[in-house]
Amino acid sequence: MGRCSVSSMSIARATWAVSLMVLVTSQWLGGAVSAHFVPVLGVSVAGSGLLGGDSAASSNAGRVNETLCLLSNTLWPGNDAAACRNGLWPVGIALDSNDGDLYVTNALSNNVSVISCDTNSLVSTIPVGRDPVGVAFDLTNGDLYVANWGSGNVSVISGAANTVVASIPAGLNPDGVAFDSANGMVYVSSEPSGVIAISGATNTIVATIPVGGSADGLAVDSMDGTIYVTNGFSANVHVISTTSNKIVSTIALQFAPNGALLDSNLGDVYVTGGCTSWLGCAGEAGLDKIAVISTATNTVVRNLSIGNDPRVGAFDAADGDVYMPNFGSQNVSVISGSTGRVVSTIPTRGNPVEAAFDPSNGEVYVAEDGSNMVSAISTATNQIVSNIPVGTYLDGITLDTTNGDLYVANGAFANVSVVNGTSDKVVETIPLLTTLAGSPPVFDPANGNIYYTNVATKNVSVISGKTNSVAATISIGHTSSGAALDSTNGNLYVPNSDGPNITVISGATDSIVTTFPAGSSGGLGPATFDPANGDVYTEGTPTGVRVISAATNSLVTTVSVGPFPVASTYDPVNQDLYVISSGNTSVLPSVTVLSSANNSVVTTTSIAEAPIGIIYDGSDGNIYGALPNSNMVDVISAVTNAVVETIQVGAFPEGMAYDPTTGDIYVDDSYSGAVSIIVPHTTQSTSGPSLGFLGLPGSEGYIVIGVIVAVVAAVVAVMLIRKRKGAQPSAPSQPQTLQQSPPKRPPPPP
Fold first, then answer.
1. What is the pLDDT of residue 653?
2. How many C-beta atoms surround the C-beta of residue 518 within 10 A?
3. Rounded-to-integer distance, Cα 201 and Cα 714, Å
4. Is cis: bond before 542, omega within 30 of 0?
């Protein structure tokens, strides 16, 4: 069994504060609804759907029939995105030296990934509190201690059972965790409280040591009984005695620190940071530093300048090297402990946050934010030998109408998953050139290509639907959040989010035709094409929708809608455009209906939450909007502009695709790393479910009357038979008809 060893502390800065709660419905079959709550980011977000919408009108609407987990390529029945158990934003890493497993905290998905060092593969995922960051292993009791920054507690995980066995309150925003093998204590840094000492024997708090400012990184020197605590607010390091639980020394730094690592061979502490002020690094490029502190004198003996924004490293005791992740420059610096010089630089796919060393196989494991992976680095060659995915983050979805395949963009892993529309399984993965988020892909039926706009690299990847490979890369020199295809002239219109320009790409040659201004100021959002008038509509900040003539490649007009429009879709039946605006502090989000005949506002309806993705469903004539904060999809009637159904999906739904052949709607659940498949639905009623006989919904009333007629007929037949036999029939019992109300979905989380 391989054994992984980790540095004496585990810590990562946490800057996230917005959270949400996912309400997951496991199944909806035969009108029965069962639900459970799964924490995903933190604070519950209540409310969804259009204000005044009729959520009771739901019996005829669609439901999530299956959920496709992309990471495992597994189909789960019903809305079961929680079963995917993917990890997002890995930040902390620690080792269970009893069984050789690594534990990686995933701050964005509220869980801990368990990785086997023997196979370099994911073996389990454990739900914990909100925003887990720091983690450390207690060698005495075999438990892992996870600091949940968002929920203000520490989850205790049994290393043997991989389950949470206790939860310990730890003040506001607990961050770093470290174990002291000399006294069996677990130390947790809490930004306002200081350092909290927890007994590993009783899992109770035995002391709280105030340090003032912001307690962040921790490093424990068990040999001399001291704790080194970084204080980003006051730009210093406090030295605490584990005997007296008091500060015995304070070491001033030239920067605001964020992490610490002990070199057990030389007795040096490596303190990382990058800003001269705790408030930020504005205008301070190149100031990223490492201060090396001697534990013998408690003084800074060396200052190092390596990569951008160094975080928490790992120490290789065999050769005395320090492996330091550089979050900002996406690489790992290998520092010689004896000379203090960088001997190697190893590039990573994501933003490395924290590292751990395995002496049994000579590999360093690095948790990478952005790529949602853990990279294994060979210390013999200083090369990455394995990439272990712990989660996936989706950026958009589109359908190839010629072959029925779906293309799901995954910016974190820099690839596109090809999902077969018949089996609903991933059949191929196409690598891209960027590791950062992109925009929803667009399919061109004329040439069979899929266009994926890469935000980070400011280009467009052209994927051939025939070969499922990148056929071309078109540099546009601008960032973009979406594009629209003009089915008439075969051109792709790419709005520039960093300026009011439109880049036009020819679908015939996959080259830029022109770039023209679409206004005088502000960035542009996703675009929608109107085949009725040949215009392209793109959302512009702060309140306008820019109408672009595809015939002349020029701005026609700007239509005022709600503040900050973010998405739109076209209804070919009524030839109206539906525009979603996210609103601001004084104006609620809204849906604005624009008539494409004269580019005028037909109506505006306030909504509780603005969908990010929005699509027209040709099978029922409704508009579907993905609500990321409440993890639902609103069904909006194109007749009344009111909600007729709310469908629960996975975590943070964004993009959607509609299959006109099957009537299915595919929703990418970004934080679940899953695709929710909504089955075909019947035409929506705008005034609630249709009422049949006895006031029962749909055809249930007619079923009841059919049963009554059958019973009466049977009774009459029995009476006639008995009369013929000369027997007196007994009085039949009166059949009872129970009227059942249509199923109602469970209430939102409190």
1. 93
2. 25
3. 74
4. yes
Q: Classify 500 as helix, strand or coil.
A: coil
How far CA 104 is from CA of 35, 70, 356, in Å, comes to: 28, 20, 10
Alpha carbon distance 218, 229 (integer Å) = 5
Give the torsion sign (CA, 54, 58, 59, 60).
positive
The pLDDT of residue 712 is 53
* Residues 436-451: tens digit of each pLDDT: 557 889 999 999 999 9
Q: Give the Å distances, CA to CA, from 220 to 21, 174, 179, 211.
A: 35, 17, 7, 16
Q: Report pLDDT digits (tens) over 621-630.
A: 899 999 999 9
Tens of pLDDT, residues 15-26: 232 222 222 222
The token pair that represents 611 in the structure block:
């969908």
The mean pLDDT of 237-252, rounded to a whole number, is 96
Q: How many CB atoms lie within 10 A of CB 718?
A: 13
- Residue 79 and residue 65: Cα distance in Å, rounded? 7
- At 130, the amino acid letter reads R
**Which class for 588: exposed (0-12), middle (13-18), buried (19 or more C-beta within 10 A)?**
middle
> Rg of the chain's alpha carbons, rounded to an integer?
30
Residue 89's alpha-carbon distances to 168, 294, 393, 596, 671, in angstroms, are 23, 33, 10, 42, 10
Report the first-to-last Cα separation within the chain, whole angstroms.
Answer: 45
Give the Cα separation of 663 and 690 in Å (integer): 22
pLDDT score, position 328: 86
Residue range 482-528, pLDDT digits in tens: 899 999 999 999 999 988 999 999 999 999 999 999 988 888 998 99
Closest CA to 351 of 365, 332, 378: 332
What pLDDT score was predicted for residue 494?
A: 96
Residue 713's identity, in one-letter code, is A
In the predicted structure, residue 596 carries a pLDDT above the cut 60 = yes
Q: Which residues contact 309 (CB under 8 A, 6 or more apart)?
A: 274, 281, 288, 326, 327, 328, 329
Residue 9 is classified by DSSP as -
Amino acid at 684: Q
Kindly report the pTM of this predicted structure: 0.73
Contacts of residue 341, defined as CB under 8 A and 6 or more positions apart, other chains included, come to 335
Residue 744 has pLDDT above 90, yes or no: no
Helix (H, G, I), strand (E, B) or coil at 250: strand
In terms of Cα–Cα distance, which of 79, 73, 143, 208 is closest to 677?
Answer: 79
